[in-house]
Each structure stands twice: as C-alpha cells, then as structure tokens.
Design goal:
Blueprint (H helix, E strand, L loop, with lengths): L2 H4 L5 E5 L5 E5 L12 E5 L2 E2 L3 E6 L4 E10 L7 E7 L22 E4 L2 E8 L5 E6 L3 H11 L25 E3 L11 H10 L2 E7 L9 H4 L6 E5 L1 H12 L4 E4 L1 H9 L10 E5 L14 E4 L7 H6 L5 H13 L10 E5 L6
C-alpha cells in the first residue's frame, strides 16, 4: 500500500455551505452529514490500466501512450490517446519529452499489443488509435501490460487496485473518479442507518492533465456515461421530495447534468457528456459536490464555479491553504453547497 493511501484515515474535509460559512472536519465525519432522504450519487467506474509504454515502430523511439477516451463503449480496441516520449511519471507532466513524430498508419509496439494510429486530432500528441488482434486478446493485453496513469506527486508506482474505489464496478475510467476515495463502508453504513440514500452511475473519467496548455484547455474530453434506471429513479424521488442531490466528484455532476431534462428529470441510458461545466452554468440536478482540492484553471475548478462565485471560491481556497489541505487524487476533500450567487 502506498504512503498516499496509508494517510487516508487522517484526511481532512472542508465543508462550505451555501451561505459562505466554512467548517473543518475530519473526513470520517462524512457519515454524520446530510439529512434523511438526501441522495448521494457516486461514480462506480473502475480504472483501466491506461498507461502503455513501448516503441514507435517507424522511428524506433520510446513512446508512452495514455488512453484518454473511448471511441465507443462497445469497442474495446479503439481509443483516443495522448502520446509522450521517453521518461516516466517521475517527471512532471509539463517536463515530459514529446513523442516521435506520429503519422496516420504508424504502428506502436506496446508490449504484447500493437496499436495503429488512425489519425491525429488537431494536435501532434492527441491521436485516435486501434489495437490489432482479437478483442479478447486486446483486453488481456491491456490488463497485463498496462499500468495506471500516474503523476509526479506520487513517486511510488501504483498498482491498478490502488486506483479503484471501494465500490468500483466496470473498468471504463482512464483515471480514477478520485472523489470516491473519501467513501468507505462505514460511511455508507452510517448514511444507510440515518436514511441517507446512495446510488451510483458509471462515467468514463478521462485525463486530468496533459502537460500542454493548449490541450489542457480542451479538457475534459467527451466522456461516456451510463445511468441505470434505479439511479434515475432515485434522483426523481429526491427531487420530488425536495431533498438534496449530492454528487461525489465532478464526473457525477457532468453525467447527471448531461442527462437532465429541462424539469430536472434524469434520463437513464448510455450517452456522452460534452464540454465544460463552468461559471454561469445552470445546474438542474446537483445541489452539492464533494470533490478534491483543485487549482484555478483546471477543468475541475472551473466546474466548481457553477456552485460558487469567485469570491466564495477564493475564501474556500484560502481556508484550505491555511490548514494545509492536500490536492491531487489522494488528497483531502471539499464539500461545497450550491449557493444562490452561482445560479
């Protein structure tokens, strides 16, 4: 178990209510929050081993391919991917070398897998690829050769199960839906005992950083989600009863709001969440968000502007910095209620 994981029991929770008040709690206090009838929705997507190292066959140069998005959830061999050159996660993403010059038709030899570049996507490092071979062989190759996508703030190599939440289900995410790391079985049991409802959806969480300012402005990329009828019904019941819907992570906000009709009802099924949610966005479903500590300019931070204006976010940021809150996927948590000033 990594050091980052062993510190989770001591994680902190900043609670920012709609009136602008801030409280600091141990994250274990989550089980005592929310009211009977409130609905907590989490992303149950497990994380793929989405980082694959190998050789760019035409040049013989080193390459790392980070899978970043599905072309179709029904096709396990075709992906949107981000390419890096030599180096590994111990280098800051911003300092990674570019890949060899990539052209359509190039073969990338990635351990037991061979990926063929279909075309670049308006940037030399962002490509669409397909893996050759039978689908079952591709899936086995991804599992055996791949590693979790990892960044320099966690230097010790992660195992794939380090990136799964306790309620992880189908492996469709490319990076962990990390807000869910805050939940454990005691928290879920405490909510159940108090009448707080819990539901899950599946959202294919994508990359949080590319190391390139131009590409980062495109994040998040289009992401598939799957909302089951039971989750959609739970949202309907909570809204009908005037209860709150709490999203565990920005991916849940993206999925629920993408699936929401004008009256706030959530359509079940598989669809795609497109574009950013940011300042001025009208949220139809989600009343509060549990997320990590994010930096201005990140797509996650921009989404938080749908819950609070710049002044309130600045106060939250200052309070977190004063108490030494940790960022990144294994860091501390912020629970922010949607305020009237953000509507």
């Amino acid at each position: 178990m990594t050091a980052a994981f062993s510190e989770r029991p001591f994680a902190k929770l900043l609670v920012a209510d709609a009136e602008g008040r801030v409280r600091h709690l141990p994250r274990a206090a989550l089980g005592s929050l929310f009211e009977p009838g409130d609905l907590v929705v989490a992303n149950d997507a497990a994380t793929l081993p989405a980082s694959h190292r190998g050789i760019h066959e035409p040049s013989g140069g080193d390459i790392e391919l980070r899978l970043a998005g599905w072309v179709s959830l029904h096709d396990p061999a075709r992906f949107i991917a981000l390419a890096f050159g030599a180096g590994d996660h111990r280098l800051r993403t911003e300092d990674r070398l570019p890949p060899p010059l990539i052209s359509p038709g190039d073969r990338l030899v990635l351990g037991p897998l061979v990926a063929v570049v279909e075309h670049t996507l308006d940037h030399p490092r962002l490509v669409r690829i397909h893996f050759t071979g039978a689908p079952a062989d591709v899936v086995r190759g991804l599992a055996r050769h791949g590693r979790p996508i990892q960044y320099a703030h966690a230097s010790e190599p992660l195992a794939i199960w380090d990136t799964w939440t306790r309620f992880a289900a189908a492996p469709i995410a490319f990076e962990p839906p990390s807000a869910g790391f805050a939940l454990d079985w005691r928290t879920l049991a405490a909510w159940g005992g108090r009448g707080v409802r819990f539901a899950t959806l599946s959202h294919a969480a994508g990359l949080s950083s590319t190391g390139d300012a131009e590409l980062d402005r495109r994040l998040p990329l289009d992401e598939f989600y799957d909302i089951q009828e039971c989750c959609a019904s739970a949202v309907f019941e909570a809204k009908r009863e005037g209860r709150r819907v709490v999203a565990i992570g920005t991916t849940v906000v993206r999925a629920l709001e993408a699936a929401a009709s004008a009256d706030g009802a959530v359509r079940p099924g598989v669809a795609i969440a497109r574009g950013r949610i940011e300042s001025g966005a009208r949220l139809r479903v989600v009343d509060a968000l549990l997320t990590g500590v994010h930096q201005p300019g990140e797509s996650h931070f921009e989404l938080m502007k749908a819950f609070a204006n710049d002044d309130r976010l600045a106060r939250i940021d200052a309070a977190a910095e004063e108490r030494g809150y940790r960022g990144h996927e294994f860091g501390d948590s912020v629970l922010i209620e949607r305020g009237g000033e953000a509507m």
